[in-house]
Amino acid sequence: MIVRRQGDWITAKVGDELVMMSTEKGKYIGLSDVGACVWALIEAPRSVDEVCAQLEREFDVAPDVCRADVETFLEELVRHGVATLDSIAPS
Q1: How far apart are CA 72 and CA 61, in angstroms?
Q2: CA dist., res. 54 & res. 64, Å (int)
Q3: Is the Cβ–Cβ distance between 4 and 84 less than 8 Å?
Q4: pTM > 0.90
Q5: Can you tell me whether residue 12 is helix, strand or coil?
Q6: Which end of the chain is more exposed for a tag (fewer CB within 10 A), N or C?
Q7: How many CB atoms lie within 10 A of CB 78?
Q8: What's the angle, vertex CA 49, arms to CA 45 and CA 52, rounded to 5?
Q9: 3-state DSSP call for residue 83?
């Protein structure tokens, strides 16, 4: 799966959170340090595997735990219109 940012989001660091606001929809959300790291990682489209591999290195988390948490987080981003998940076309 490839994850891509969607929409026009303005971001600002507020304390330990990254606050994001959609200029299109007027919605806002807050991301933790890990969520902010995921947001930075998907500045360009990336595979979920690449995102997980980077987070595992950076946060010293077990692969199975990381994968489950990342998938849940990405589903929330998709639900809020922040990102899209696309299948990788078979070769």
Answers
A1: 16
A2: 14
A3: yes
A4: no
A5: strand
A6: C
A7: 14
A8: 100
A9: strand
